[in-house]
From TrEMBL:
Gene, per the UniProt record: ATP9B
Similarity comment: family membership: Belongs to the cation transport ATPase (P-type) (TC 3.A.3) family. Type IV subfamily.
Keywords per UniProt: ATP-binding, Golgi apparatus, Lipid transport, Magnesium, Membrane, Metal-binding, Nucleotide-binding, Translocase, Transmembrane, Transmembrane helix, Transport
Organism the protein comes from: Athene cunicularia (Burrowing owl)
Gene Ontology biological-process annotations: endocytosis; phospholipid translocation; retrograde vesicle-mediated transport, Golgi to endoplasmic reticulum
Membrane topology summary: Multi-pass membrane protein
Presence of the UniProt keyword Plastid in the record: no
Membrane-spanning intervals of the chain: 170-189, 347-367, 373-392, 892-914, 920-940, 970-990, 996-1017, 1024-1044, 1050-1076
Recorded catalytic activity of this chain's protein: ATP + H2O + phospholipidSide 1 = ADP + phosphate + phospholipidSide 2
Record protein name field: Phospholipid-transporting ATPase
Length: 1093
């Protein structure tokens, strides 16, 4: 996140004409506002964000870090005392007051930061969570806000009270210390990395223009009002055109920026990255120059200049940049499995209290019974395993590593390591369309003129028409070069006559070649030619050197098609564009106005002045909707899955254009409701236009989308497609991708605007069975306003749902609705910035690195390179992660329950004495080196081979029911623990001879062997590391017997008596369970075992 880059505003260029700048807007973050551009090599100025893609782990962290730091600090101060509380409250109030002052419109004087009336935030990134003083308290608070860890802290602290002490201090403090040390070290490493990254970014040097010339300034020292020079950097695709202020373009030298008296009036910092309103005023000229500023005059942070140089004035810095303001504070995602384990932990705590109360009751409440109660709570504290969180966290890290190392899904990145199990519990998958299901690669497929339609196989006819028409035009021009203007002028008002197909094709292709925002780029010729842009007629516009850059792939497809039929875009700057005819002649068109595409108007327009012979002609191309055939053909093309574009034109006289221009410029200067006023002026021009043609462009499907969607559907996952595209295109892609099967009915939800209409339409939909639903964003909004519950209930019964014309906010809202109404786990997948809110709202967010940049990929929990990889990610890794964590969590609980059962039996036999059975190192060793490796090796277990999981996706349905970890399975493990603990303890008590020390030796050895055998019983597929772990643990225990003289009688444990007694107890505790497991597999096998047999 390049918020250390202040927003600039392009101010100056050594061009005499206005300068053009093209920007690659991948992350679309507000950062720079263009004031000027000084050109070094006569090439179009271009920008890309490629150079500023920062480390992914810091994405979305800047405000979160600050907010969490403030929140953490406040809560910790409360713990510290009322004095800190008062300090925090006063600081908070100061911050609130200060924030209100900050967000105002501002006047920024060129190159004079000292003239600023307000104090603006420092332009520094700070992603660190803590400082030197808050690190330890902050980390400890984060750990002890969890019930499990707080409980163990209380238990450990109680050992400092002599009356409550029941063993060595390290018995309790060693496990707790280990957990905390691991956490503190991990946080310290992360914090140090954040600090280094912040320092590196804040120390990056920029060229600042001062009265004395260029000086180098650190990113963190950039202030509002500074003039910053942005040099050329390499970039890639998706360029955006940017414009410098015209009046500063005519200044002879850079230093003159300081001699003029000029300022920028800019709107207050705000979230909207697609608009900017301001004015540029130069007071020292006569008359005073006022120039309106819009989004095209700005460079937000994270943009890169691809060639040339830009000089800009800084408008916003630090947390007032749009990139920081738009950085939402994503929720801290917690997996369903973690929530389930947390519930079980609370159940264990209740069991612990109940057991302690029973023990004290059986004692008869004699003496200081409350002290005995607390001692029993301490004795049985192993019921709640402190190692549970450590084991699960290490398991999650292992799953993440396995996912990233999987060669079948290369390039996959796990960005949130806390929720890999969620991949195995998904019920709803919400997917974007463009770039996710489709490739975002456009191919021109259809040209329709109303009476005749051309497809891919008849494009050669268009080419021959174009060649003929241009050869006629040029022969006429050469013959009539001396003719006067009046001879052709009557054409403007002549009565309409039916044009020939050839002339209509000529007009249509010319309009498509002109109405766009595409720029041709000649890589190998960059900076070679010293000629001006208007002398480029003599340049060699060789086809192999030319590539097209535009913000929309649709536009590139259209321009590439006009090139294929003979009319080639060879050059473009801010004021003109040049087309090359099939005969090699260059046609120059002067660009008078451009009306860029917006999501509100859903169209773009251009006004050009044509220089053909001596006749001036002004044309405008834009999207309109009228005509008898247009509606029908639009629908037909959309049903074929084509993206449609309607092209029309209108001829203007010079007087009409002058009138329009004055009204347009006036509207652009207004501060209030500027966009509405500008739109109204433009719309006044878009009337009675001559319809030229309808085009169809195809967006190709991603590789293996159909089989992947089919697999997900068979796995019981309901798929919703949320897209901004029109209804027909969305429906068509849904069918062609097999999101909706060919035989399935599709219910298209009619547009509704009122409560009554929504009621009727919902009733009509209710009568349909097993059909896919297609609904538009507007209708959805109305339904959710009045009938939210009913609509969601009906939609959830559909096998597939398509929501078209969805805004990013609506996408996130739909995700939250599903979570709220169904309680099921949701997954969102997308590839663009407009999918980020949906990805963050879902329980599991997956981003695809696509043509729209890395924004979705960086914001997601998992990043993949192709949509088809989601199949393996869910079916294989999701399954394994969930099954393994469920087994691991329950086994760690079993490990604590069994030893607590033995303690309970021991205490009850010895007159309910609150005396520990095992002391000191035995307890520490039991939870660590004696059993840790085999238990953790469960993260390598798998019940089904990956090939089988992919071949039979139906197996995934069982996972969503949550049967691997439930109160039922938990109770089974509790019963096993009680049975085994009872057998081990009673067996040792029956078999010990004279000394009590033998009970400890026999029972503890049998306990270790039982745990190792139970791991072997739980494992479904053996891995060589599991075998190593089993023998390593056994070896560690046998080796340590030599050092445990204070607990064991070494002479006794080397006898045959000891061995047969231990073996007998172990067999009795484990053999019945092995028999039960065998019988269960024989008579009631799980579904997957039928496939693997």
């Amino acid at each position: 996140m390049w918020s250390s880059r202040a927003p600039l505003f392009i101010a100056y260029s050594d061009y005499l004409e206005e300068e053009k700048v093209v920007v690659k807007a991948l992350q679309e973050h507000p950062g720079l506002m263009l004031l000027s551009s000084s050109h070094l090599d006569e090439m179009p100025l271009m920008m890309s964000e490629e150079g500023f893609e920062n480390d992914e782990s810091d994405y979305h962290t800047l405000p979160r870090a600050r907010i969490s730091q403030r929140r953490r600090g406040l809560e910790w101060f409360i713990c510290g005392g009322w004095k800190f509380l008062c300090t925090s409250c006063s600081d908070w109030l100061i911050n609130i007051c200060r924030r209100k002052k900050e967000l105002k419109a501002r006047t920024v004087w060129l190159g004079c930061p000292e003239k600023c009336e307000e104090k603006y935030p420092k332009n520094a990134i700070k992603n660190q969570k803590y400082n030197v003083f808050t690190f330890i308290p902050g980390v400890l608070y984060e750990q002890f806000k969890f019930f499990l860890n707080l409980y163990f802290l209380v238990v450990s602290c109680s050992q400092f009270v002599p009356a409550l002490k029941i063993g060595y201090l390290y018995t309790y403090w060693a496990p707790l210390g280990f957990v905390l040390t691991v956490t503190v070290v991990r946080e310290a490493v992360d914090e140090f990395r954040r600090y280094k990254r912040d320092k590196e970014m804040n120390s990056q040097l920029y060229s600042k223009l001062t009265v004395r010339g260029k000086v180098q300034v650190k990113s963190s020292d950039i202030q509002v009002g500074d003039l910053i020079i942005v040099e050329k950097l390499d970039g890639e695709t998706d360029w955006k055109l940017k414009v410098a202020v015209s009046c500063t373009q005519r200044l002879p030298a850079l230093g003159d920026l300081f001699s003029i008296n000029a300022y920028v009036y800019a709107q207050k910092p705000q979230l909207d990255i697609h608009s900017f309103e301001g004015t540029f005023t130069r007071e020292d000229s006569d008359p005073t120059v006022h120039e309106s500023l819009s989004i095209e005059n700005t460079l937000w942070a994270s943009t890169v200049v691809a060639s040339g140089t830009v000089i800009g004035v800084v408008i916003y810095t630090g947390k007032e940049t749009r990139s920081v303001m738009n950085t939402s504070n994503p929720k801290n995602k917690v997996g369903l499995l973690d929530l389930e384990l947390n519930q079980l932990t609370k159940a264990l705590f209740l069991a612990l209290v109940a057991l302690s109360v029973v023990m004290v009751t059986l004692q008869g409440f004699v003496g200081p019974w409350y002290r005995n109660l607390f001692r029993f709570l301490l004795l049985f504290s192993y019921i709640i395993p402190i190692s549970l969180r450590v084991n699960l966290d290490m398991g999650k890290a292992a799953y993440g590593w396995m996912i990233m190392k999987d060669d079948n899904i290369p390039g996959t990145v796990v960005r949130t390591s806390t929720i890999p199990e969620e991949l195995g519990r998904l019920v709803y998958l919400l997917t974007d369309k463009t770039g996710t299901l489709t490739q975002n690669e456009m191919v021109f497929k259809r040209l329709h003129l109303g009476t005749v339609s051309y497809g891919t196989d008849t494009m050669d006819e268009i080419q021959s028409h174009i060649i003929n028409s241009y050869s006629q035009v040029h022969s006429q021009n050469s013959g009539n070069s001396t003719s006067s203007t009046p001879s052709r002028k009557p054409q403007l008002s002549a009565p309409k006559v039916r044009k020939s197909v050839s002339s209509r094709i000529h007009e249509a292709v010319k309009a498509i070649a002109l109405c766009h925002n595409v720029t041709p780029v000649y890589e190998s010729r960059a900076g070679v030619s010293g000629e001006t842009e208007y002398a480029e007629v003599d340049q060699d516009f060789s086809d192999e050197n030319r590539t097209y850059q535009a913000s929309s792939p649709d536009e590139v497809a259209l321009v590439q098609w006009t090139e294929s039929v003979g009319l080639t875009l060879v050059n473009r700057d801010l004021t003109s564009m040049q087309l090359k005819t099939p005969g090699g002649h260059i046609l120059t068109y002067y660009i008078l106005q451009i009306f860029p595409f917006t999501s509100e108007s859903k169209r773009m327009g251009i006004i050009v002045r044509v220089i053909l012979g001596v006749f001036p002609h002004i044309a405008m191309s834009t999207i309109v909707q009228y005509n008898d055939w247009l509606e029908e053909e639009c629908g037909n093309m959309a049903r074929e899955g084509l993206r449609t574009l309607v092209v029309a034109k209108k001829s203007l006289t010079e007087e009409q254009y002058q009138d329009f221009e004055s009204r347009y410029n006036q509207a652009k200067l207004s501060i209030h409701d500027r966009n509405l006023k500008v739109a109204a002026v433009v719309e006044s021009l878009e009337r009675e236009m001559e319809l030229l043609c309808l085009t169809g462009v195809e967006d190709q499907l991603q590789a293996d989308v159909r089989p992947t969607l089919e697999m997900l559907r068979n796995a019981g996952i309901k798929i919703w497609m949320l897209t901004g595209d029109k209804l027909e295109t969305a429906t068509c892609i849904a069918k062609s991708s097999h999101l909706v099967s060919r035989t399935q009915d599709v219910h298209i939800f009619r547009p509704v605007t009122t409560r009554g209409e929504a009621h009727l339409e919902l009733n009509a939909f209710r009568r349909k069975h097993d059909c896919a639903l297609v609904v538009s964003g507007d209708s959805l909004e109305v339904c959710l306003k009045y009938y939210e519950h009913e609509f969601v209930e009906l939609a959830c019964q559909c096998p597939a749902v398509v929501c078209c014309r969805c805004s990013p906010t609506q996408k996130a809202h739909i995700v939250k609705l599903l979570q709220h109404h169904t309680g099921k786990r949701t997954c969102a997948i997308g590839d663009g910035g407009n999918d980020v809110s949906m990805i963050q709202a879902a329980d599991c967010g997956i981003g695809i690195e696509g043509k729209e940049g890395k924004q979705a990929s960086l914001a997601a929990d998992f990043s993949i390179t192709q949509f088809k990889h989601i199949g393996r990610l869910l079916m294989v890794h999701g399954r394994n992660s969930y099954k393994r964590s469920a087994a691991l969590g329950q086994f760690v609980m079993h490990r604590g329950l069994i030893i607590s059962t033995m303690q309970a039996v021991f205490s009850s036999v010895f007159y309910f004495a609150s005396v520990p059975l095992y002391q000191g190192f035995l307890m520490v060793g039991y939870a660590t080196i004696y059993t840790m490796f085999p238990v953790f090796s469960l993260v390598l277990d798998q019940d089904v081979k990956p090939e089988m999981a992919l071949l039979y996706p139906e197996l995934y349905k069982d996972l969503t029911k949550g049967r691997s970890l439930s109160f039922k399975t938990f109770l089974i493990w509790v019963l096993i623990s009680i049975y085994q603990g009872g057998i081990l303890m009673y067996g040792a008590l029956l078999l010990f001879e004279s000394e009590f020390v033998h009970v400890v030796a026999i029972s503890f050895t049998a306990l270790i062997l039982t745990e190792l055998l139970m791991v072997a019983l739980t494992i479904r597929t053996w891995h060589w590391l599991m075998v190593v772990a089993e023998f390593l643990s056994l070896g560690c225990y046998v080796a340590s017997l030599a050092f445990l003289n204070e607990y064991f009688d070494v002479a006794f444990i080397t006898t045959v008596t000891f061995l047969w007694k231990v073996s007998a107890i172990t067999v009795v505790s484990c053999l019945p369970l092995y028999i039960i497991k065998y019988l269960k597999r024989k008579f009631s096998p799980p579904s997957y075992s039928k496939l693997t047999s």
